What we know:
- It is a single chain.
- The chain is mostly helical.
- It is about 80% helix and about 0% strand.
- It is built from four helices and no strands.
- About 0% of the residues are buried.
- Keywords: ATP synthesis, Cell membrane, CF(0), Hydrogen ion transport, Ion transport, Lipid-binding, Membrane, Transmembrane, Transmembrane helix, Transport.
Amino acid sequence: MIYEPIIKLAEETVNNSQNSSGRGLVAIGIGLTMVGVIGTGVGQGYAAGKAAEAVGRNPEAEGKIRNMMIVGMAISESSAIYALIIAFLLLFLFK
Length: 95
């Protein structure tokens, strides 16, 4: 199963007497927060593709389509930025 190495690492980190800070659990948390970036990348790629498709169908509306695409991408990018901030907080605050 795909989660077995993660569970094993978490158990070793918790049971390890030399490393009682749980640094491995923090690393797992950082990795899981960065999973949020995958959806942002897929969504932005889809939006850019659909915008290019729309401009191909209606070149006169290129300015409006571009503006709407930029606003939509900026809104969706905020979730990736939040995930990155959480990852940095986990990395530097939990030592």
